[in-house]
């Protein structure tokens, strides 16, 4: 082992394996307070990093041929594979994975890490475990049609996970063509009316700057809720290993080039809506059809960010229900089971209420 490797390992211990100066235990990152915390003696030390431009992750020029590069995560890490669901998570070399944070399976195994891009930035946790658990309990209890048995069921422990995301910036120049429809109401002899539409062609140009378009860089989530989670990416800071202390980080499974293809689909859908609104505003058209767009992308850049979520699950009648709590905002995502008894009772209550109210307005039942 050369001298440079020895230096890197010494730096690693100072950052990710920071020992408590009072009791010697490994300290972890404390969400919302930008500090390292010892859960044994409760000693706390502030992290000397601020949310400013100099500390934010920098944009990298997009190159379709690049899917590898700087692969050092700044610390000794290991890759943990779940035999049950196939999830791949990155842990600190000293951290022990007793169960999969995604499906709860205890069938986890260590695998030699692969050469993948290291994160360029991270949005640190702002919501701690206790707050996340409280928000999840309230979310489940507030469900009107959620079975009482499910509300009283015990959820699996919360796991703090950094999910991988690609963000893309780009200048987009568009040329478009479409048909504009102008409606006119025509009275008929029988007293009815009909709508006549006059069509005319239109074309034009449209420019837009795409800023931090988010793409989930994991292929294992089918639930749309994961893609709908909103983050304030402007709060990202340059990646430092200490932010991951005490948490799991999933490495990306969606390659950078595939991430850009996924981003383009979303961007094109957004451009289509924007241009249709532009045409309606400029022409006062009632309808817009046959819209075709030619887009040119310039100055494409990307970032590889780790974004925070708390994950938990609950098994009810042999089905697993997964929940996600945004580690920045505390918003809860996830589907709860439906009690059809509650639904029927609610419908019956509405019918009875209508039967009591409608006669007062002279409306026959």
In percent terms, what proportion of residues is strand? 25-35%
In which range does the helix fraction lie? Answer: 10-25%
How many beta-strand runs? 15
- Which segments are poorly predicted (pLDDT under 50) over 5 or more consecutive residues? 1-16, 50-54, 94-98, 106-110
Q: Structurally, how many domains make up the residues?
A: 1
Total helices: the number is 6
| Distance from first to last alpha carbon | 87 Å
Structural class: alpha+beta
Q: Would you tell me the overall average pLDDT? A: 78
Spatial shape: flat
Report on the biggest sheet.
12 strands, mixed
Cα radius of gyration in angstroms = 27 Å
Query: Order of SSEs, N→C?
Result: HEEEEEEEEHHEEHEEHEEEH
């Amino acid at each position: 082992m050369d001298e440079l490797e020895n230096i890197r390992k010494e730096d690693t211990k100072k950052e990710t394996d920071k020992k408590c100066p009072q009791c010697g235990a490994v300290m972890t990152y404390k969400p919302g307070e930008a500090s390292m915390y010892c859960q044994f003696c409760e000693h706390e030390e502030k992290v000397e990093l601020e949310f400013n431009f100099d500390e934010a992750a920098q944009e990298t020029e997009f190159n379709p041929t690049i899917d590898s590069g700087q692969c050092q995560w700044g610390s000794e890490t290991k890759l943990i594979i779940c035999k049950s669901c196939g999830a791949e998570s990155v842990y600190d070399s000293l951290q022990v994975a007793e169960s999969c944070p995604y499906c709860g399976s205890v069938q986890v195994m260590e695998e030699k890490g692969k050469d993948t891009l290291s994160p360029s930035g991270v949005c640190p946790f702002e919501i701690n475990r206790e707050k996340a658990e409280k928000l999840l309990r309230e979310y489940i209890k507030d469900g009107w049609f959620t079975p009482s048995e499910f509300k009283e069921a015990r959820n699996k422990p919360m796991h703090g996970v950094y999910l991988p995301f690609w963000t893309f910036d780009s200048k987009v120049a568009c040329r478009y063509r479409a048909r504009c429809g102008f409606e006119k109401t025509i009275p008929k002899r029988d007293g009815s009316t009909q709508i006549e539409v006059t069509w005319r062609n239109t074309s034009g140009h449209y420019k837009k700057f795409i800023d931090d378009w988010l793409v989930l860089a994991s292929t294992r989530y089918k639930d749309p809720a994961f893609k709908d989670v909103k983050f304030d990416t402007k709060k990202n800071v340059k990646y430092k290993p200490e932010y991951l202390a005490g948490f799991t980080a999933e490495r990306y499974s969606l390659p950078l080039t595939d991430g850009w293809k996924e981003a383009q689909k979303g961007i094109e859908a957004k451009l289509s809506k924007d241009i249709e609104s532009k045409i309606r505003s400029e022409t006062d058209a009632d309808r817009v059809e046959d819209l075709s767009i030619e887009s040119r992308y310039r100055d494409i850049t990307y970032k590889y960010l780790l974004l925070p979520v708390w994950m938990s699950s609950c098994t009810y009648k042999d089905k697993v229900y997964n929940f996600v709590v945004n580690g920045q905002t505390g918003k809860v995502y996830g589907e709860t089971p439906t009690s059809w008894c509650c639904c029927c009772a609610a419908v019956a209550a509405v019918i009875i209420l209508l039967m009591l109210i409608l006669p007062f307005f002279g409306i026959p039942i």
